[in-house]
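User: Please predict structures.

Assistant: First:
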Amino acid sequence: MFKIGDFARLNHVSVKTLRYYDEIGLLKPVRTDSLTGYRYYSAKQLPRLHRIMALKDMEFPLSDIAALVDGRLSAEEAEAMVRRKADEIARDLRTKQAALGRIEAWLAASESKERSIKMNHAQDSFKQVVLKEVNAVEVAGIRTTLQDYAEQQPLWEELVSYLNEQHIHIQSPIAIYYGADANQEDGVEMEVAVPVNEGLAEAGLVRRHHLEPVREMACLIHEGSSERLTETYAALQQWMELNGYGIAGPVREVHIEGYLTNSNPDTHITEIQIPVTKEAVCS
């Protein structure tokens, strides 16, 4: 048998970790001296310790690790738990990749002094804001609540796959952001949609409906990667504030060119559309 310090050193874990595993019942020593309180471990415990360490490296919480190494789960339940963890890590990776893209875009703009040019362009873009009427349009879409805006790609993939099966020509896809309910603490309700003819059948999550006409829509064209959409949104919001407008409905992003067909984001053209109404002036 090995004292706790030797067992920890030989297996590249800390004494503190082994003590905690003992406290929660995850890996108890084979013997604890009643007089000294020393914990002793056996080489026979190595397979269990190694399973615990492997699962910890996969970022499983200790509660799940206990269930997996204790054999409390059926083979099907264990596989389902592992698949859920894989899905969770995949979502985290997509989020972090999106964050990395934003960081790289910021650094590129900073190094070439493009960022200051972009900010000046945002001020000049007030002149390019167009206030127009938008007609009703029939769309096929998938509407749901996501935890983050960056999670919408699977929705697009599902919608495009169905429309391709139906031999529908995809043109000017629209992302619609409905906003959050007053009692909703997180998440964003949104829809991915494509204009279609009225004869299209619904299937799965895909629903057909009319986007209502909007009498006054403040619109501004954004050219390039969606990573910099925030600058165009900022310009629109400043224009609204300066001209006394408030938001009056769901915000739309109409992807005029390239979003689903061209992998080069620099060629993408998107029109941001915000329904607006004149705000009451407070005296």
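Second:
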Amino acid sequence: MSDSLKPIDLVEGLHRSDEDDRDRLRQLCLGPIGRLVDRVIADHRPDVERRLVVHRTLHWVEMYLRSRSPASFEDLDTRAFLAMILASAYRMLTPPGLDGPRQMVPERSEPLQCPYGYQVWRSCLPCERGGGWIGVDLSSGEDLWTIVIDVTAHGDAASITGNGLSQLWQARPIVELRAAGRPPREVLSVMSRELEPVLPDAAFVEAALGRFTATGEAWVAGAGPWRALFRRAGQGRVDLRCIGGHLLGCSWGNDHEQESWSLRADDELTIASDGLYGQPDRDGHRLGDRIVERIARRLIPGRAMHAAVLEALADVIGDRGRHDDITVLSVLRRGEVGT
């Protein structure tokens, strides 16, 4: 980076997708990133191909910078800017190890309170160094946006990819699509194209993206196999819908199915990764085979559907471990709502 080009100017160029600034970033980072990758490979990952790791790390660095406000870099010189980049890359390349077997994470006693009367519950239940992740955006105009991610890999590949997805979720092109109220299926297609050059060879990404408006309209689009559970206020019946589509990061297509609901006061919608439905009980029967029945009988008055889903899961697991990462998100619309 020349003395005349400040870090804030470079980041602003990246936000505009300026190719010259992408080249400048690569020239600045290639040597330091390469040395960092060499150290990480020697210490942690001797079986990976260096060139691919360097290439993907540079892409993730750009995504990280595009997820940050240019103002964050206003007072940085080149040396401090590079140190910040290397710190981000190191965290991505060396995710934390396990501290023993992962236990079931209890649901939050209080949901996240969102604008326009929505409440959101979130539970990520990793089975190993997992790639499950949940994003919630409360700032896109009058809409609530949610995303549930499940990386189709385990170990380092899943953890690294999950870390990068949080940066993609905050990248300016994706934020602008949400702020413009674009359909979730369109936002997933753009995310898919961004992900394709950086995904590890053994990893693809399943995702369910939801948009919830101030008037109670809800849309959910899927990448990979997803199911949505819907409950009308006060009812003991649960409806199940399947939502599919191409995995994110796949070059063979960008078709993503999309379902819609009109939510009234206290209606609930739950989205969960396939690990929930595939969890076997002691007899080998999957939770998904009878999940509607298992949840419905736990919907006692005053209990949120999110709690009923996790209780059904806990009963199936018993004292055994989970066979896959499980990520669950539930949205409830509260307040006085017009018909």
